[in-house]
Amino acid sequence: MREIVDGVFELGLGFVNVHLVVTDDGVVLIDTGLPRRSKQIERGLREIRKQIGDVRTVLLTHNHFDHIGNVADLRQRSGARVFAHAADAPVITGAIRPEVKGLLPRLIGKVMTAEPTKIDQLITADESEPIPGFTAVHTPGHTRGHVSYLLDRAGGVLFAGDTAGGGKDGTLVSGPKQVSADPAEQDRSVAKLATHNFEHAVFGHGRAMSGRAVERFREYASALPKD
Ligand SMILES: [Zn+2]
Ligand SMILES: [Zn+2]
């Protein structure tokens, strides 16, 4: 695990990142990785001298299997409260099957399905404070109910989910658009995030960035076609 800023850790599970945040009220997980990887998350917790019962909150960015893979198991064993946007909820709870774009993702999705779970708190507002210190920003496009989270720490840490990604050379790249519900709307959501302020940004896929990360979101937004 890598510490991004004080008490914010990044755990890579294959091609996807899970983030752990140590707060005064236990550990907050942002997303839960690929299915059947709970053990690796527990190992990450042990690395920072925490255990499964210390996880109080799981904030989900969106309903793709590589982000909700262990949420059912973790919720059950930790008693954590799970937050997700209402528009993404039916897939997470198993009420409807996920709509997957593209042949390869569809094949992978057939093998890798996340166990459904109950959601404790639905996010419905454009911006809300699900738990102290965090702001949830609705960033639709990748999925209709995609949410990014801003943590008020170290000048601001953005958990961008799949709305954007971290490039190898510290650049901002678009999120995995081939599986996005609405790529143009996803770009508008990057522009929306650019109106906030944060020093650091972490992603579902790719490298974390530090040092006026928001500026790279602003550059990305200013290069978008104007309509
Ligand atoms: Zn995704
Ligand atoms: Zn993803």
UniProtKB/TrEMBL annotation:
GO function terms (MF aspect): hydrolase activity
Cited InterPro entries: Metallo-B-lactamas, NDM-1-like, RibonucZ/Hydroxyglut_hydro
Keyword Hydrolase on entry: yes
CDD domains: yflN-like_MBL-fold (cd07721)
Pfam families assigned: Lactamase_B
Domain Metallo-beta-lactamase: 15-205
Entry keyword Cell membrane: no
Keywords from the named record: Hydrolase
Name of the protein in its database record: Hydrolase
Organism: Paractinoplanes toevensis
Lineage summary: Bacteria, Bacillati, Actinomycetota, Actinomycetes, Micromonosporales
